[in-house]
Amino acid sequence: MRPTSQSVIAALLLGTAGVWIGLEVTQTTLLASAGRSLALEDIDGDGLDDLLEFRIGSNPYSVDSDADTLSDLEEMLLGTDPLIWDDLSKITPSAGLYADAYAQADSIYLSVNLIGQTSAVSVEYSMARQQSLVTVTAAAAQPYLVAYSETTSSRPGWYIQRATYAFPRSWFESELSSAFAVTAIVDGVQSSQTRMFTHVDHILSEVRFPQGSGRQGSSTPTGGLVPLEPSGGGEPPYPGNSDEVCVQTLQPIGSFGGGRVAYRVSAAGCAPMASATCFTGCSTSIEDVLIGIDIIGLLGG
Fold first, then answer.
1. Is residue 4, in this structure, part of any structural domain at all?
2. What distance in Å separates the CA atoms of residue 52 and residue 39, rounded to the nearest whole number?
3. Is 283 domain-assigned?
4. Which residues contact 92 (CB under 8 A, 6 or more apart)?
5. Does residue 2 sit within a domain?
6. Rg, the chain, Cα only
7. What pTM does this model have?
8. 3: in domain
9. I need a labelling partner for 225 at 20 to 30 A (CA). Which of 12, 209, 278, 297 fits?
10. H helices within 69-147, ranges in order?
11. Residue 11 has pLDDT above 50, yes or no
């Protein structure tokens, strides 16, 4: 089976991320229904779970989807596109963070990754809901850790550390909108990642933003909706218009302090995109209120 990019937009909508490292882990066996990809399964061994690769559009059967000698995970960490060949002579090594999520059965799996020369410190996790924002330390999140690995990078002296957490899906399904953030200091630099979730047609999805589309102040960011449970992992195709994606424009409407912010969906409609699906109820999501996390506010800036 060839990988189906539930949305090619995910390959374009990359950002920095957060990571939790330095933990000893007992691997947990997680089962899935027959005929579906397994949670935590990584057939090509590139460090990206197969179900995550279905979401971002890279090839779960190839370590290096674009054959430029950088693994798909390294490309995500460096902020390059795993589907576009890169001239390595023009890429300067730097510390990087990448986090992403996918859903299967009753769990949301959060994959957090680090590439650098030193360990991450001051790692914290935050979850925002309609009525609250909770921040915990890495130690407090440890019960949800289900996988951990360390590998060498293709660059001498650089290392990749990877951890995956399994959180109850009900935490996210019970809210119209929620958000997750990871913050950490890596190689002396503050890094962060946020992910925003919502529902359209009762389908839990992520609002995926292009790089450079700020989500703070007076900006009105635009993002495409990507289901958290990829159909390429064995789920049937989602109902809606094929080869289109639901695009939402968000208008900031309020800040609740401590980093929790609210957005109103001011516009929503289908836009052409190969291999994606625009939900039937896309246009009816106008006026929905989405919850996000402002990293500057979260960090007390």
1. no
2. 9
3. yes
4. none
5. no
6. 18
7. 0.82
8. no
9. 297
10. 72-78, 138-141
11. no
